[in-house]
Amino acid sequence: MAVSKKILLVDDNPLVLEMMGRALSKEGFYCMKANSADEAMAILGLERPDIILSDYHMPDVDGFAFRQNLIAMPIYKDIPFMFLTSEGDNELMLKGINLEAVDYILKDTPLPVVVSKINNFLSTVREEHERTLKELSVAAMALNLHSVPQRLPVIKGFEVDFWHKSFQNYPGGDFIDFIKIDERYTFIVLGDVMGKKWGAWYFSFGFLSYIRAAVRICISEGNFSTKSILQKINAVVYHDPVVNDVLSSLSLLMVDTEGGLITYSGAGDLPLLYYNTADKGLKQIGSSGMLLGLMPDGDFDEQLLKLNTGDRLFIFTDGIIDFEDTNGKKTDYNTFTEAVKPYLAQSFAAFKKSTFLQGKTVAHIDDCSLIHLQKTDQ
Amino acid sequence: MILLTNIYKDALIAGIQVKEANLTVSDAFKDEMTSLLDKGNKYIIVNFEGVIYVDSSFLGALVSSLKYALVNQAEIVVAGLNKDVAGLFQLIRLDKAFKIYPSATEAAERKS
């Protein structure tokens, strides 16, 4: 993972800002500079740094008051903070410690030492963060909770595989499941609980449970309609006070091995990408349904597709189409279409190694999930 | 504050003050929207002018605010979506849940 080093420098002395900025830029930091606490607040509204290095003595709002203001705001209080001060007196230090300032740098410290101090500090914060993450992951593993399958189903006449990357290695809101009913029918589930990290991850199990239950109940009643299954899930989610404030997308596909038929219904999901071997064409397959739990009637529909040997379906969540360029983050469905084109003559395993998907691993913009289904010879 | 609000005719325009509307601001956004609805605003225009990226956490907060608005007999519309964000709204059918206007003033005039 590329280590992000975005720093916000706050100092009323333009010379100090310039010198610090240069020294830190050389060390790979992306520097944002503010002449005052007010200017720093304006920058914070636009971009979130990994660390703030602020002068103590500033006119109007000093470093002390600035830090106090940040602590009062939940979205900023956790950003690691260091004071840059020309004073070393104990009283000042004590005041700062009460403000949860994590470290100090004296202004006359040689620049290389300043840089290494900041680097060390960031590493400590990261290590602590990773340790907590690991402990939580171990707890989740102990509970045997998985939001993606541990093994792939065997579906006669089809090859199915998936690629999943969580956001910054947190379990997240994306969930994948393969529900094999019998040798003939298998359901493919891909959902995205809106949100990231633990909150979304927790709810992904709630949604998965409803989906599994709805699929099983409908099948036991002889109802093989993906539209009708979505309607049932939507009705429950809409009325359930535990999850009705949490929205989720869902792509639900039923594979019928007799005839290679796919039935598909979607809820606020991205259109599937369908590759037809006969005309070598890529086509979006969209559905009309709205996000689960949004409206009492989700306006769901159902599409029927017949896959012939070699035909492929790509089912994915929005993390796959998010990317970052020099102008910032963007979302564009066509980036996926273009990325997959050169791999259509190759296996999905080859695409998993593509620079496009490997890039998603490094970029860490969102949870990313992609399911690939291909019709093979019987 | 994520939102800068001002009254225009009988509408409340809530302008998003960040370039990237993502996880880091989604909770604050939802709290501010809830508070605007609690104050009795019945027609809120969420102005996306200047926003270049919206992630699913933020969309979740927006949609959740819409559900809260419906319970309170209020309406939330969106305006000023750039091409990418408008494309995303269409892709995941949020254009069926929200009325979308080219600009906040047009939304206030209820013209598309």
UniProtKB/TrEMBL annotation, chain A:
Q: Which residues carry this modification: 4-aspartylphosphate?
A: D55
Q: Which UniProt keywords apply?
A: Hydrolase, Phosphoprotein
UniProt-listed CDD domains: REC (cd00156)
Transmembrane region(s): none
Answer whether the UniProt record assigns the keyword Hydrolase to this protein: yes
Concerning SUPFAM superfamilies, the annotation shows:
CheY-like, PP2C-like
User: Which residues are in the Response regulatory domain?
Assistant: 6-122
Xref: Pfam families:
Response_reg, SpoIIE
| Protein name per Swiss-Prot or TrEMBL | Fused response regulator/phosphatase
Q: Which organism is it from?
A: Mucilaginibacter rigui
Taxonomic lineage of the native organism? Bacteria, Pseudomonadati, Bacteroidota, Sphingobacteriia, Sphingobacteriales
From TrEMBL, chain B:
Which residue intervals define the domain STAS in the entry?
Answer: 26-111
Q: Which domain of life is it from?
A: Bacteria
Q: Which SUPFAM superfamilies match?
A: SpoIIaa-like
Question: Where exactly are the transmembrane stretches of this chain?
Answer: none
Protein name per UniProt: STAS domain-containing protein
Species per Swiss-Prot/TrEMBL record: Mucilaginibacter rigui
